[in-house]
Amino acid sequence: MSRIQLFDTTLRDGEQSPGVNLNAVEKLQIARQLERLGMDILEVGFPAASHGDFLGVQQIANTLKNCSVTGLARAKESDIRTAYEALKGGIDPRIHVFIATSEIHLKHKLRMSRQEVLEAVKYHVELCRELFPKVQFSAEDATRTDYVFLAQVAEIAIQAGAEVINIPDTVGYTNPVEYGRLFHYLRQHVPSFEKAIFSCHCHDDLGMAVANSLAAIENGARQVEGTMNGIGERAGNAALEEIAVALHIRQDHYGTPSRMKLNEIAKTSTLVSRLTGMAVPRNKAIVGANAFAHESGIHQDGVLKEVTTYEIISPELVGVTNNSLVLGKHSGRHAFINRMELLGYELDEQEIEKTFKAFKSLTDTKKEITDADLHALVAGGKASYNQPFEIEHVQVHFVSNGTQSATVRVKDKDGNEVEDAATGAGSIEAVYNAIQRILNMDCTLVDYRIQSITQGQDALAQVHVELQLDGCRVSGYGVAQDVLEASARAYVHAAGKLKEVFAETRS
Ligand SMILES: CC(=O)SCCNC(=O)CCNC(=O)[C@H](O)C(C)(C)COP(=O)(O)OP(=O)(O)OC[C@H]1O[C@@H](n2cnc3c(N)ncnc32)[C@H](O)[C@@H]1OP(=O)(O)O
Ligand SMILES: CC(C)C(=O)C(=O)O
Ligand SMILES: [Mg+2]
């Protein structure tokens, strides 16, 4: 049986999650890891959406060498030409062009007749084919589309040169039996079905995205689309790591392997969660903190006697290591580098130095450093490389039921330090007011999220903020053992990005 193609849209549909806003450096960092994970195709943005998205897509397309990079475009000439400019430098450029096909979308959104949609599909897919060696066409809202019309659209798109036909469940409306039947129907009613790869793309509004995707695979889909950790518009997309592990564990049933390097999953999941600020629920399949934890006595007894009694997936399979070498205060560089290598990181000298320093300072206050802490240090460290500003010092004076005050010292890239103090209704507000005074920026805090990385009193805190200034919205990320310090780091990270955006606009 042929291998299923993995189409990852973490950096396009995933980035459409409310509150997620990645800059070009973060997108490239995630894209590189997704490539390492073994994705076949990465959809990394919508080049016509903004200049920033265009540059992000272009940079990734020009950098990655082991997977195909694609970008989304409407059935609109200018979107397609813009996507071409962004993607043309890639090793295997492809375009993903779409138009809605359901009556609801035709009548209320596009205000087009079926005939007009058919003509638009033919015209735009042919245009795409002139520019790109590979064309993917999507019939948006396919699962609420009349089957006969959908088959007609798919046939026209294939005749016009599309190699991949995607049948998205855009609003997460379908169920496994129905979605499976839809693929079965298309197989019988699209004359050129075998000439194309049919793809599934599911959303999780009714909690069935992964089940629906697997049903499509059982009924002829040869490409599956989704995101890491299932992030995405509204309730999210199908979680690709869940699908890949299901295909592996239940090979007996599906018989369709994927190229995903399963032992890279934990690291990828952590990176995506840290940089997007989308926390992974503890009970989430495969990548949740509790996915391999056994709490009850009967289960623990069973696992101690024979692990397969209650464990169908071994943690090692998905890159959750179970190391006997404990890292702590007395560990040296060798043990640290060894663990980093075991976790699959390829860090350069500068990264090792910086992460090792952060690790050592963490050991002053935290007894045992877990793999989750190390993932966070690397993600946090990478977020801070080449950052225009860094927090040097934070001091807070707390008064119960009173005004709080904070003194903060910030260092810029050239080593210049500036210190200032401010007050606020709460400690974090006081810290943020002090940073605003130092950077002379009057930005608005539009989102603040805090999460503990591991359990226990000495767990690392990770803070994710979003700042807005003159219509520009950016996110920032900070990790520290202390909540106030993590909050300050996240704020200067975001504020630094804003400074860069405005410096670029002025130049
Ligand atoms: C299911 C999905 O995930 S689809 C992808 C969703 N992602 C995004 O929308 C993120 C990027 N989007 C954007 O930045 C903006 O929406 C842009 C740049 C694409 C367009 O912005 P604007 O020109 O201001 O249009 P706006 O977003 O308000 O409306 C969309 C327009 O595109 C039309 N449209 C929507 N889908 C398509 C399509 N596939 N093909 C052709 N036209 C389309 C709509 O009918 C509407 O047209 P109208 O202005 O004639 O009424
Ligand atoms: C653009 C398409 C493929 C999409 O994301 C959807 O329909 O959900
Ligand atoms: Mg989608």
From TrEMBL:
Residues at which Mn(2+) binds: 13, 201, 203, 237
Keyword Manganese: yes
GO cellular component term, pick one: cytoplasm
Record-listed E.C. numbers: 2.3.3.13
Reaction(s) the record says it catalyses: 3-methyl-2-oxobutanoate + acetyl-CoA + H2O = (2S)-2-isopropylmalate + CoA + H(+)
Single GO MF annotation: acetyl-CoA C-acetyltransferase activity
Named cofactor requirement(s): Mn(2+)
Start and end residues of each Pyruvate carboxyltransferase domain: 4-266
InterPro entries: 2-IPM_HCS-like (IPR050073), 2-isopropylmalate_synth_dimer (IPR013709), AIPM/Hcit_synth_CS (IPR002034), Aldolase_TIM (IPR013785), LeuA/HCS_post-cat (IPR054691), LeuA_allosteric_dom_sf (IPR036230), LeuA_bact_synth (IPR005671), PYR_CT (IPR000891)
UniProt-listed GO biological process terms: L-leucine biosynthetic process
Keyword Mitochondrion: no
Biological or metabolic pathway of the protein: Amino-acid biosynthesis; L-leucine biosynthesis; L-leucine from 3-methyl-2-oxobutanoate: step 1/4
Coiled coil: none
Matches recorded under SUPFAM superfamilies: 2-isopropylmalate synthase LeuA, allosteric (dimerisation) domain (SSF110921), Aldolase (SSF51569)
Residues covered by region (Regulatory domain): 390-507
Function text: Catalyzes the condensation of the acetyl group of acetyl-CoA with 3-methyl-2-oxobutanoate (2-ketoisovalerate) to form 3-carboxy-3-hydroxy-4-methylpentanoate (2-isopropylmalate).
Family designation: Belongs to the alpha-IPM synthase/homocitrate synthase family. LeuA type 1 subfamily.
Assembly: Homodimer.
Protein name: 2-isopropylmalate synthase
Organism: Priestia taiwanensis
Taxonomic lineage: Bacteria, Bacillati, Bacillota, Bacilli, Bacillales
Record gene name: leuA
